[in-house]
Amino acid sequence: MADVCEEWGVDVSRGPDWLFLRLRPGKTEPAGMADKIWSLADRHFVYRLVLEMNDVSMIPSHLMGQLVMLQKRVLQREGALRLCGLSKECAEALRFCRLDQALPNFASLEDAVKGQRRHAPHFANA
């Protein structure tokens, strides 16, 4: 596990052309997280990232800012930044701030890599 900022850790794994980063939140705000994750991507020469957010219970504004900063850097390298495993509350917070299109959330790691969003089933009225 690597440290991405004070008290925050990240588990890093690689797939073909993708870097998978599972965030491990700490008790403090994630200052400098975008820089540290960018450094990991640069070290691996991979700019297609999936952030696994399963352990993140809330997204404060500072974390949103770090994610936006990271997204801008990734796009400059023609890469992709996708999230997966966000709680319903975290996904709603991104939607409320109109960041859900810029920072897409997927149900699973596999869906994030494929870029497939699963939609809720539609039920016909009886």
Automatic annotation (TrEMBL):
Domain named STAS: residues: 49-116
Top-level taxon of the source organism: Bacteria
PROSITE patterns tied to this protein: STAS (PS50801)
Protein name: STAS domain-containing protein
Native species: Lacipirellula parvula
